[in-house]
Description:
With 123 residues, the chain is α/β, with parallel strands linked by helices. It has helices spanning 11-23, 34-43, 60-69, 90-99, 111-121; strands at 3-7, 27-31, 48-52, 81-85, 101-106.
Amino acid sequence: xxxxxxxxxxxxxxxxxxxxxTQAGYxxxxxxxGEEALKIIENTELNLIISDFNMPVMDGLELMxxxxxxxxxxxxxxxxxxxxxxxxxxxxxxQATEMGALAYLVKPFRPEQVLEMVAKLVP
Length: 123
């Protein structure tokens, strides 16, 4: 079973993504911020990470930077990373792309959009 980590400080967003993906046969892990996510990422091989840009404690860009460059996260250094955001400023999009984000999901989104994106990134 393919494992996907969703990272968002909104419980509602995590619930929508979890329900959508579990119904499609994926295993979904959840974290409310980047620090919680790092604890999961360090010990679990994932097939995809979906992270909000703006969160307390650690935002999505810092999370992606640590995963892509930090030795403790070698299991997931090449895991596809999707940025989730309510506002997609071009400067943030450019920065995230340069750091390794492969896709963006803009809130609000439809469950079908999540499934389409995941199908493209998780073979």
